[in-house]
Write a sequence for this structure.
């Protein structure tokens, strides 16, 4: 059994684009953000120029509750690079507002992930102090 | 048996009936594959770089067709410009297309529209995978939404497979049976990188170390180096060349976005039609290909499916309409996919055992094997009397799936 924890090594860090900069700025404040369309109210992630539902360009940032359920998971034993500690569990989360994001699961055993498991976001510093959203099981 | 879905959607000649039988044959039907070549494939190829092995592959395919470089008037591929220059065959038509079946369809379109008459499509890779403690460079894009989560191809594809297992109860044993079947095809193929490494049982696959759950090591493609190339020609030219022409019957590509940057979801896409979600990438393309060809899955003699990960074979059988949604796990367990089964798969050993010759080489190699099957020239695992072969590339974890139908007879 291995407890899943945030990565502590010199893992590759994300580099924001012009469009995604507000997302990463929010992460640095400990906030998870998504884009909502003023025209159709639909939610778009990953950060985009146009609405995923109606292609309108009128997207505004909104703070997420940070809770959701595991949509799919995989526990990885062969790391992407040796800077990663294995095992780690990649998850796609169905966020409660109705959008999906990719992350890593922490705070449970490596074989504890199940589809539908309730999770909540928390932020941990990685390379260069970038704050990365992780997800932990909650009741 | 075709699924009920196919029964409604894909009766043979449906398009022709709808247009009163007057629809002209598809322009692709004036195109044939006339030359194919795989260079040596190896885990690491000494004495080559990507350009040199690509050029060697191109010369091999031209020779296989009984042609010389001067017969080529169109070139597709990353190092296509180098071939044009080194062989001094300019001026010729050139496309910048890089990837597998889309490149072949672009070549076919160029021929069908008269931009060129004999086109070389080549790819090669050597010396680019040097940091062996990391996964191969083409498996791990540096996108901001995946890179810090340790994502690479196996994990991306695992997330898709997990959803299918959750929705339909697809079992790891079915995935393992697929992997063992393909690896055993490679085990007997002297040209395969993993020739003689088997035979494998499904239990061997399940007992191999876990890479990205549910994928064990032996559920995954290898990494390798190599080159490959094809020559396509207008049908009237193709009739007089060294080998029997293998005709392009149909093909198309389904793409959902850039690979490995966004959460890989089974339900992605489908805004225009919920049948065409990413989990069934290749469905739309295959339906269009079968319609072009005037045939159906039941007409296919050999399935040269792209096999980056074992579940992808199961997924493609469902996407392409060989069985219904959720039935793929049982479908592959019924003796269907073995070399003497109704739909033999990936007969040279595929990406798992023959070669994954680099970032894009393997995306052409399913079509090369399909061509060899239609010609009847496979030294091992030749399926008898192949009239129609279906080749594919890509997969749902990469947000794309491409298909191509080849035939011994002109459609």
């Amino acid at each position: 059994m291995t407890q899943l924890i945030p990565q502590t090594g010199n893992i590759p860090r994300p580099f924001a684009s012009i469009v995604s900069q507000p997302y990463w700025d929010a992460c640095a404040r400990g906030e998870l953000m998504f884009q909502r369309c003023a025209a159709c109210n639909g939610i778009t992630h990953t950060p985009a120029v146009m609405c995923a539902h109606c292609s309108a360009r009128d997207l505004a940032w909104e703070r997420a509750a940070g809770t959701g359920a595991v949509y799919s998971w995989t526990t990885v034993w062969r790391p992407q690079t040796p800077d990663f500690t294995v095992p780690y569990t990649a998850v796609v989360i169905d966020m409660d507002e109705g959008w999906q994001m990719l992350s890593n699961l922490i705070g449970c055993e490596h074989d504890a992930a199940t589809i539908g498991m309730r999770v909540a976001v928390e932020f941990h510093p990685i390379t260069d102090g970038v704050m990365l959203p992780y997800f932990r099981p909650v009741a | 048996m075709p699924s009920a879905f196919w029964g409604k959607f894909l009766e043979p000649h449906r398009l022709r009936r709808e247009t009163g039988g007057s629809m002209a044959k598809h322009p692709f039907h004036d195109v044939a594959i006339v030359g194919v070549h795989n260079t040596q494939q190896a885990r690491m190829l000494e004495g080559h770089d990507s350009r040199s092995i690509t050029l060697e592959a191109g010369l091999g395919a031209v020779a296989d067709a009984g042609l010389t470089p001067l017969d080529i008037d169109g070139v597709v591929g990353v190092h296509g410009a180098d071939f044009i220059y080194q062989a001094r065959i300019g001026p010729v038509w050139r496309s910048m297309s890089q990837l597998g079946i889309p490149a072949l369809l672009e070549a076919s379109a160029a021929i069908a529209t008269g931009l060129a008459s004999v086109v070389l499509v080549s790819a090669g890779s050597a010396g680019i995978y040097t940091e062996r403690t990391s996964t191969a460079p083409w498996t791990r894009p540096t996108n901001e939404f995946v890179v810090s989560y340790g994502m690479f191809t196996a994990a991306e594809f695992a997330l898709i497979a997990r959803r299918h297992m959750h929705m339909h109860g697809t079992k790891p044993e079915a995935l393992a049976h697929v992997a063992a079947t393909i690896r055993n095809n490679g085990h007997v193929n002297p040209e395969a990188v993993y020739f003689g490494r088997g035979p494998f049982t499904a239990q061997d696959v399940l007992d191999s170390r876990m890479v990205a759950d549910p994928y064990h090591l032996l559920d995954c493609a290898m990494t390798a180096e190599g080159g490959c190339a094809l020559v396509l020609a207008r049908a009237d030219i193709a009739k007089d060349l060294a080998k029997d022409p293998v005709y392009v019957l149909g093909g198309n590509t389904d793409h959902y976005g850039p690979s490995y940057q966004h959460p890989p979801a089974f339900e992605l896409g489908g805004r225009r039609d919920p049948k065409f979600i990413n989990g069934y990438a290749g469905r739309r393309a295959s339906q269009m290909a079968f319609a072009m060809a005037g045939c159906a899955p039941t007409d296919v003699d050999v399935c040269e499916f792209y096999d980056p990960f074992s579940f992808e074979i199961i997924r493609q059988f469902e996407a392409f309409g060989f069985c219904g949604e959720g039935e793929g796990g049982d479908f592959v367990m019924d003796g269907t996919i073995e070399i003497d089964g109704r739909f033999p798969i990936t007969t040279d050993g595929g990406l798992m055992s023959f070669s994954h010759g680099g970032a894009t080489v393997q995306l052409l190699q399913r079509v090369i094997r399909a061509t060899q099957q239609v010609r009847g020239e496979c030294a091992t695992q030749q399926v008898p009397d192949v009239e129609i072969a279906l080749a594919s590339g890509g997969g749902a974890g990469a947000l794309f799936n491409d298909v191509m139908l080849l035939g011994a007879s002109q459609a």
